[in-house]
Design goal:
Radius of gyration: 15 Å
Distance between the termini: 29 Å
Number of helices: 2
Length: 171
Amino acid sequence: GVLSFSGTTFNGTVGTGRFIAVDQTVADVDKYGADPSGVSISTSAFNRAVASNHALKLNAGLYVVSEITINGNVVTGMGTASTTVKAAAGASYTIRLANHSNATYGWATKVLRDFTINGNSKTSDGIVWGSALSPELSLAWMLEGLNIIDCNRGLYKPYGNIGNTFNKLQI
């Protein structure tokens, strides 16, 4: 199970009465080379930040990306009016929520919160789950406080899914 309060998340086995703190290290995508001005494409910087396996911080600004994949990371922006992740021209989607190994991420909830996703004039999907190469389940994602705009499909789930939570979405 997951217990969260005051910005701290604890993860443990349901029914054991024990919770252990999850790593709260934050990877600021700008420090990995992301461009919050929207002039340069920030896909490589996002991929490096995701690979850190830490929570991702998106600062105020416009990040242009081409098909980024989020694994077990918590991704938090500065609010829908301040932070936007926009699909680059030619991208088929903006963000893909990956299938993951339970050995790595367990059943802990993965979170996207407090930013806008822009599909670039409806040429790209906003959020996509899974992939044809790995069609197993994408488990326990929480989408909270997101504004999903100008997308071909705001949320697209072509493959199995289980245990997702949607809160304060604007599509």
